[in-house]
Structures are given as structure tokens and as C-alpha cells.
Inverse folding.
């Protein structure tokens, strides 16, 4: 699935970024984009958020963009999670899970990495601390591609 299509899906499903900013398609051209689906009840998400914060801080200047899409029907649940596990990356909301259905998400968290050319490079469900180096290596490999 191409990045452009994904971003159009984000916009067409009226996902709202936590910062109330509007997603600008031009902003993501030539960047590596990680779309990560999460929910407040997701135990592995409690471990993935601090790690994604580190990845954002480490690689954002090289072109890494993380968009974490919350699937909670109740925004208060997501807000409570974010109060305990703040994010420095972009947060979007999909309470109807329509975008998650497009992706075929079956577990939380589920991450999709898109290269600079907008092509899906890899995806994985779940978050395992033991695999952090493997996940980071996928980001680094994607960032090295032209």
C-alpha cells in the first residue's frame, strides 16, 4: 500500500491529530513514515511508547515520522494513557477503527514502515523489548534508502 494512499485514508477517515494540526501530504514526501496502531488497554504499548519517543528523538532529523493511531472509542481512555505515557511523536485518532480495518490490524500495537518512496517496507504486530534492536535496524535501513 502506498504512503499517499495511507495518508489519504487518514484524511478521508477524519482522523484528528492530537495537536489539531492538519496532515499535509507534502510534509511526508521523501520521509520514512511509521504508522503504529495502539489502544489504551494495550500492555505492550506501554513499553513501545517510550521506545518510539527515543526513536523519534534519535531519527526525526534524518526523516523519520511516527504517526501513532489510537483506536479507543472513548477519547478519555486515550488521554489517560497519554498522561501516563506521553508521546513526542504525532498522535491521531480512529475511534471507528476504519483505518485499522483497511490495514487488517489484528493485534496491538501493529506497526507499518513506509520508505521514502511511499512503499510498504515492513510491518509487525506486537512489541517485544528483546526485538528493539531489530525494529530500530528496520528504521535505519529505511532511512538509508534513497
Amino acid at each position: 500500500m502506498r504512503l499517499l494512499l495511507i495518508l489519504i485514508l487518514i484524511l478521508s477517515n477524519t482522523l484528528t491529530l492530537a495537536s489539531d494540526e492538519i496532515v499535509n501530504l507534502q510534509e511526508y514526501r521523501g520521509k520514512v513514515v511509521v504508522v503504529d496502531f495502539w489502544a489504551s488497554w494495550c500492555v505492550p504499548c506501554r513499553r513501545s511508547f517510550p521506545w518510539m519517543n527515543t526513536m523519534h528523538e534519535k531519527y526525526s532529523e534524518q526523516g523519520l515520522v511516527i504517526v501513532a493511531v489510537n483506536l479507543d472509542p472513548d477519547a478519555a481512555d486515550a488521554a489517560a494513557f497519554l498522561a501516563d505515557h506521553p508521546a513526542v511523536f504525532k498522535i491521531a485518532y480512529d475511534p471507528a477503527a476504519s483505518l485499522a480495518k483497511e490495514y487488517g490490524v489484528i493485534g496491538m500495537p501493529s506497526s507499518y514502515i513506509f520508505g521514502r518512496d511511499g512503499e510498504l517496507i515492513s510491518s509487525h504486530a506486537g512489541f517485544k523489548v528483546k526485538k528493539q534492536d531489530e525494529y530500530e535496524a528496520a528504521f535505519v535501513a529505511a532511512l538509508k534508502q534513497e
About this structure: The CA atoms of residues 12 and 44 lie 29 Å apart. The first strand starts at residue 32 and ends at 38. The chain has six helices and five strands.
